[in-house]
Each structure stands twice: as structure tokens, then as C-alpha cells.
Design brief:
Layout (H helix, E strand, L loop, with lengths): L2 H8 L2 H11 L3 H18 L1 H6 L3 E12 L9 E17 L4 E6 L5 E4 L13 H14 L7 E7 L9 H17 L6 H16 L6 H8 L2 E5 L7 E4 L9 E7 L8 H18 L9 H6 L1 H8 L1 H25 L3 H19 L12 H13 L4 E5 L6 E7 L3 H12 L4 E4 L7 E3 L2
Parallel strand pairs: 3-5
Antiparallel strand pairs: 1-2, 1-12, 2-5, 2-6, 3-4, 6-7, 8-10, 8-11, 9-10
Helix pairs in contact: 2-3, 5-6, 5-7, 6-7, 6-8, 7-8, 9-12, 11-12, 12-13, 14-15
Length: about 425
Amino acid sequence: MKITEWREKMSGEAFEKALYPLYKEKTGENVPRYAALLDRFEEVFPEQAKESDIFLFSAPGRTEIGGNHTDHQRGRVLAASVDMDSIAAAAVRNDSVIEVLSEGFPMCRIDISDLSAKKEEENTTMSLIRGVAAAFAQRGCKVGGFSMTASSNVLPGSGISSSASFEVLVGNVINTLFFDEKVDAVEIAQIGQYAENVYFGKPSGLMDQMACSVGNLLTIDFKDKEKPQVRKLDVDFDSCGLALCIIDSGADHADLTGEYAAIPAELKAICEHFGKEVLREIDRKDFIDQIGVLRKKAGDRAVLRAVHFYDDNDRVPAQAEALESGNVDEFLRLVRLSGYSSFMYLQNIVPAGSVKKQEMGVALAMCHEFLGERGAFRVHGGGFAGTAQAFVPLDMVDSFKASIEAALGEGCCHVISIRGVGGTPVRL
């Protein structure tokens, strides 16, 4: 549709109806975001705004509920898309240039006549765009140039995965504009991971992209890395009497790539002892039988991190079963155990060598303080910085939020909801 048509539709019920599956009760507050997106597109790309069909897209952030750092060992995770998202307006160009202007960032401009990875682009948005385009080209897609404006309320550094949300957003744009939507949600997630691993330079697993792309609350088993098993769960936390809160610790993710990379690197040393690629291929009993040798060969921290993997990997199906059977107390018990394991064994709370700066530890301590014996809490996502996650009884939400923000800072506690739709074009 032309930009004038979109604006006409936005003033009526049809547009809100199209957005409702994405935002539910928050639909009304999200309509202005799309209007602002179109205004920005018209301002930055005036000629295209007059002549071209404009397409709208949305890709949610994600929350990890079970399986902390299990995905890169082809383990299991319990994850969900959330009602914070990245959105875009895009139109096809008649050249080989992609121009993307994300709110709050400078223009990204790449020429797709060369889709090779660029060392100088590592850790930049340009690398993600180029990497996603390259992955589509490898699948036979004739990727063309396009102009795009984007905006996001997925908090950067929040553990809700703003980078994966953006990768899935760009994947949906290319899939729709140039590939007749031939690629499904799972493959778009794999494309996003490829861009992040190979072009951006971050050795992440696939959980972030999968949850953003597929949507809903789901369990994912990565045992077969080419064909991960995905199962959606028909569970609503509200009906369980729980609110899902994400608490910003105040710590910065900057310069922590080495900390994240050290986890799979240390586990690789254990795997090499057994001649395997990942821990999922090694029986737990065989691992335990070799502890003495492994401590000398890989170090104690690597051994403890492997213990965490085996424990948290087993917790995921138990958490799913507890939720589906309505056993809320058992689910919360397992969340607590996952949090303790991350702190004690995985050790992704405090960056190595840090003594005074322990924001994540303080955030977890405050969750314990204000929840007491009710609810549950744990580190959220990669760890070392970013956010904690808390499941809070509905009758405690207001008091918990007020107490946490008094201790850690106004606006640090976000009450979020699970979104039933992953990355998608917005259609009327």
C-alpha cells in the first residue's frame, strides 16, 4: 500500500484489529509508533514515499524462562516472545543499496553487490544487515536494495535480545520483499544466528532468534541443530496467578563479549576430551566418571559450568510439564533452582575480576528480599550484566515493582506479557 493508504487505515478500526494479536491490551499505545515510523520514512526517503508501496513489519523481543546457556550445547530451552518489539517500514529500491535508519542511530548504508563478511563491520548493525542478506542470497534469493526506517522498544542490554529482534525484523523484510515468504520462521531464526555468529562476531546460540521469530511460549530442543524441535505451550502466566517482570540491573553489556565467549570455549575443552562437539553428545555418567581428569585438563570452572548444563537441560521439560499441568509451585521451584545453578555453577553473574561492581548480584538479592518465599527469580539471558527475571504473584506486583525501583532506580522494573506471534509482516 502507498503511505497515504496506510495513514487512512490507521485512523480506523482495521489497523487496530491487525495489531491486536501482537499487542493485545497495549494495541492502542502502539498505533502511534507505526504512524511515527511512516512519518520518518517520508522525511528520510521522500521520493519513495510518494511512489513506492510501503510494507510494515514487527519482530518481538524474547524472554528466556528455562535453560540458561544450554542452547549453544544443543540443549533444551523454554522461551517466549514478549510484547516489546522492533518495527519497520520498508520499500524496494531500484539499485543494490540497502539503507536502514533506526531511531536513535545513524544511517546504515550497504551495497549488496558485495555480501562478504567485513572485519571492520564486526559488532555493528551493518554486519547484521549484510549477514542476513548474505544468508538469503545463499538460499537462492535475489536480494535487492531497499529503504527502511525502524524503531524499537526492546530495551538494549536488557536480556530481551534487541539484536535478535532486529535480525528477525530484517529477515522478514527480505523474505517478504524478495523471496515470496519462502523461508519459514525457524529458518529465519537460523539466518539471524548466522549473521550474528559469522558477520557480527558473537558466538551466540539459537534460542534468542528462535523465540523472536517463532513467537509464543515454546520449548525448543536443539539436539538436531539443522532441525530443532519446537513445541508451543498453551499457557498463560496470568491464569497461573503470576506476572513476569524483567529487572534492569543497571550494568552495561559493553566489553563483555569475552565473558560470553568463555562459556562455550571452556565447555569445548571438556567436549574435546571425549572427542565430541557439544555436551549434549556426552552422557552425564561418562562426564562424572572423568571429573578428576577434566579438572586438570579444562579447569574447575569449566567442570562447574558443565554441571550447570546437565542440570538446567533436564529442568526444561520438567518446567514445561509443570506449567501444562498447572503445578505452579513446582514450576517456581524449578525456576529458583535454575537461578541458583547459574550463580553457583555457571557463574554468569559477576564478570571475572570484578569486586565492587556487582550490579546483577544486587538485583538478584533485592528480588529475594522483596519476594521472600513467594514467586521466583533468576538471572535472565546471557548474564554478567543486563537483567534479572522474576515471577511475581499478581497480588504483589505493585508493591514488588515499587520496592525494586526504590532500591535499584526508577523505571528499572518492566512488567511484560507473552506475545503469541513472532516476526511478521503487518497486514490488514
